[in-house]
Amino acid sequence: MEKIRLNEALNAMGIACSDPRVIAGIHDDSRRVGRDWVFVARNAKAERYIEDALVKGAVVVCGHIDPRADVYAVEDVEQVLRQLIACCHPGLCEHLLCIGITGTNGKSSTAYFLYQCLSHEMPCLWIGTHHVLCEAFQEDSVHTTPSLCELVRLIEKGRDVGIRCVIMEVSSHAIAQKRIAGLAFDHILYTNIRSDHLDFHHCEAHYRYTKYALRHYRKAGGRIIVNHDDPRLRALYPLVEGNCVTYGTRLSHFHLHDVETVRTGLRFSVNGDRYETAVCGRFQAMNLTAVIALCHLLAIPVRRLQASIRALVPLDGRMQKVWTRPLAFVDYAHTASACLALYRSVGEIAHRRIITVIGCGGERDAGKRARIGEIASSCSDLCIFTSDNPRGEALTDIFAQMRQRAQDNIMIFEERAHAIKFAVKKSGNDDIILVVGKGDEKIQLINGRAYAFDDAAILCRALREKEERA
Ligand SMILES: CC(=O)N[C@H]1[C@@H](OP(=O)(O)OP(=O)(O)OC[C@H]2O[C@@H](n3ccc(=O)[nH]c3=O)[C@H](O)[C@@H]2O)O[C@H](CO)[C@@H](O)[C@@H]1O[C@H](C)C(=O)N[C@@H](C)C(=O)N[C@H](CCC(=O)O)C(=O)O
Ligand SMILES: Nc1ncnc2c1ncn2[C@@H]1O[C@H](COP(=O)(O)OP(=O)(O)OP(=O)(O)O)[C@@H](O)[C@H]1O
Ligand SMILES: N[C@H](CCC[C@H](N)C(=O)O)C(=O)O
């Protein structure tokens, strides 16, 4: 961080200030600030924490005139926040290899695989939905892409421990809310664009064009790595003037072929080179092809890549096999397209029946619930609808929407743990049990409270108890 005086920084933005203290840091959360920090209260809710920040010795920037000393009123808080960060953290991404990953499904899987492959080459930092991870430290995440202030904090923290590469998942919310303002990526990778978050974006075109807008955050010469199978991504080509590198099962720069689902994971070829991995799920072959394309751009030899992919540790909660007889998986599909990919992958494994436990999150895109209910019930022999982070919504409303186009093989258990136990009770040794929607989440959010909850642990316990009883 540069040594910038408060008066210099604010005066440069036309804000009167004569305070010459050196800015120690900038944050929009009062819990993160200390002496000589700038706390930027971005909205009315945040203004409740002005006193908290002042007590800690911070100065405050907010959108309302406030008579207290050390509080500066500005017209456009968001813009001042971005300018302050640009001024105190110039070139945040310089001398770092920065890779942004976006798409409806597969961001975390792709990012984690890439993190593992690139960590053999240089120290990396992965910023994603559930984890911020590098060799020196690990933090839990709340969002797929943290706020701008948190991103700056994490990248600076990573720089302090010597990371040379940042792999970041970028959500559409983050692009729309400019959480990545001032960041620049060497390469941007698109997994796929389907439908999600229409509660926030209101229409698919807005969602899609928001995702496309990530292209503006490229460093000069940066490449865009695109899933060529996806027609919504092919529409991106004219916008990026020949800077695309394509991958997919259609004719592409990195052509995926001969995918085999085996009991031990996957085998597949890219441009004639054979890869094998313990990662499960046909959909992961596409994510891995994206990783291979990117590693190729970084001049990593195929031999080394084959070895890295053979050694990959799967990401918990993504078609995670937790039991073998019956076969039981935990998966994080929470969009209709992810559900389709999941059932396609599972369908390739020999089985008698498929028993699914699934729910849809509250206070998220309600428009996807009917389609998810339809897919899950029509692809299962028995389908149990249950809770998945209802947040502040009534479960009865969520179930009503999930049932709209569902088959008549559904049952409803409000308690997710009961639903899982019931699925286990009904299963036979040759069946497949799928527990879908929460992946490796460790909490269940109900009415503003977070309760400890772990699909994999509950499923394993129920299966173990059943086995012991038998
Ligand atoms: C609609 C939306 O984007 N809301 C975001 C917004 O909420 P908010 O303004 O209501 O925040 P709040 O938590 O009530 O707090 C108000 C303010 O007080 C501040 N505060 C709070 C407490 C305190 O002690 N001191 C303090 O200063 C907070 O930093 C915040 O600035 O600002 C908060 C702080 O940055 C975000 O956590 C919050 O994301 C909400 C919770 C959210 O869940 N967003 C989801 C939809 C989201 O962004 N999801 C995507 C997922 C995409 C995907 O993976 O597919 C994501 O990027 O993760
Ligand atoms: N390439 C893909 N195509 C279709 N579905 C996929 C693909 N990759 C993953 N999925 C599905 O999406 C689920 C979530 O995967 P992952 O966490 O990698 O995606 P994500 O985009 O990071 O999700 P989130 O938006 O919640 O962060 C998986 O469990 C699987 O069901
Ligand atoms: N990153 C996604 C995850 C949703 C997962 C599902 N379990 C839910 O809570 O809706 C989101 O926040 O929209």
From TrEMBL:
NCBIfam families tied to this protein: murE
Molecular function terms, GO-annotated: UDP-N-acetylmuramoylalanyl-D-glutamate-2,6-diaminopimelate ligase activity
Keyword terms, alphabetized: Cell cycle, Cell division, Cell shape, Cell wall biogenesis/degradation, Ligase, Peptidoglycan synthesis
Stated name of the protein: UDP-N-acetylmuramoyl-L-alanyl-D-glutamate--2, 6-diaminopimelate ligase
Subcellular location: Cytoplasm
E.C. number(s) listed in UniProt: 6.3.2.13
Pathway: Cell wall biogenesis; peptidoglycan biosynthesis
All copies of domain Mur ligase C-terminal, residue ranges: 317-439
Domain Mur ligase central: from-to ranges: 101-294
Chief place where the protein resides: cytoplasm
Superkingdom per UniProt: Bacteria
Pfam families: Mur_ligase_C, Mur_ligase_M
Similarity field: Belongs to the MurCDEF family. MurE subfamily.
